[in-house]
Design goal:
Layout lengths: L1 H5 L17 H11 L4 E3 L6 E2 L3 H12 L3 E9 L4 E4 L9 H9 L10 E4 H7 L10 H12 L3 E12 L11 H19 L13 H15 L3 H4 L2 H8 L10 H19 L1
Length: 265
Amino acid sequence: GLIDSKYPLLKERIIIVDKENAGLPAARKTGMEYVTGDYVWHIDSDDWIEPDAVKKIAECAVQTGADLIYFNFYKEYAEHTKLKVESDYGIEDKDEYLRAMYNHRSYGCVWNKCVKTDIYRRNDVRFPQFSYAEDTFLMTQVVGYVRSIHHLDEALYHYRKDNPQAITRQNRSKRRTEAVRNSLALYQLYKDVPSDKCPVSVIFDDIFYRSGLYSIMYGLELFNEYPFLSEKIAGASLRCGSDVWIPVQMMLKVYVWIRRMMSRS
């Protein structure tokens, strides 16, 4: 086949796993069970990479030894290409980077990040249930655990935006529902971990605000399904730099106060 004809020298290093389709998060989890190298890089099936991308990432890994190497990329539309350049973050900016990823000021995707395999294994990084926003579910954990970060300031990946079958083309309500359920699951996984050891505690308030807003906007009834949500929104700090604007955060606090008053009457 293709491997025999084009990559015969790599044949012994390529592992093909034949498994029933159980969704993207399950596929990534399965892949991690077979990883043997020092670093792992997830590439989506409908995208492509620069011809020398692996070489440049490997050279960067050797030079820096960074736990996490992230890089720029191209968004590929039907009629044009758009370069996306990431901001520079170092390990001292980890909390800022986490919040930026969660709030769409940076990119929480897995495909523009190469990570030491040991970060996944040593810290038992979890995989989400739902496909939408699964990248952020994974990468916020990974960034929370890493001890070194390096921005490779080159565009190495081509992210296809014109695929009608892509997860991002699902209807908005379904996407928002999956995203917020993944976020709440992330909180529940780590809520009992002391804040000084928790990789994702810095985004908890952002999770609460977004969950409350989406519940109201899309009729998700999350306040009934997750009884802790009202209490957490009431106690959350007002957060600049959030997808949920501060006036909306304040409105959510009023909303949960009214819910409490009504439940007591």
